[in-house]
Amino acid sequence: MTELTLGFAQELLAMQPFSVLVGARVTAFGDGGATLELDIRPDLQQQNGFLHGGVLSYAADNALTFAGGTALGPSVLTGGFTINYLHPAKGDVLRAVATVAHATSRQATCTCELRTVDGDTETLCALAQGTVIAVKR
Q1: Closest Cα to residue 63, out of 113, 14, 105?
Q2: Closest to 122 (Cα-Cα) out of 37, 59, 65, 54
Q3: Could you report the per-residue pLDDT of 101-123, keeping only the tens digit for each?
Q4: CA torsion sign, 91 to 64 to 111 to 31?
Q5: Helix (H, G, I), strand (E, B) or coil at 2
Q6: For 31-62, what is each residue's pLDDT tens digit?
Q7: Inter-helix orientation angle 6-14/53-72, to 10°
Q8: Distance CA 25, CA 91 (A)
Q9: Beta-carbon neighbour count of residue 4 at 10 Å?
């Protein structure tokens, strides 16, 4: 069985070409949770200068799935998720912190808070909830 460590999660993320494209990084992993971060760059923004909603959705999806993987193991997929945008995302870094709310042997329900970090100020910009499913190989 593969040991589920922060290093392992970082290796998995590095194997995702889109994650590499947006510059995502796993900064915490384990004990029922995962944190994904990415730098907010001009090429990830929409026309009003805010981080594009698709980037927020990507971060939520991946953070939820990594969190679910802490409970279900490394072979997981997103079963579905919802996201609510609360505040325009602007700052230096996007931080998506996901935790497992409930898990069985086959699926995990997870929640995710997405915050922008601008210096010492963090702003909650979105909330997401999703289901992660174990994949039989």
Answers
A1: 113
A2: 37
A3: 999 999 999 999 999 999 999 99
A4: negative
A5: coil
A6: 999 999 999 999 999 999 999 999 999 999 99
A7: 140
A8: 17
A9: 18
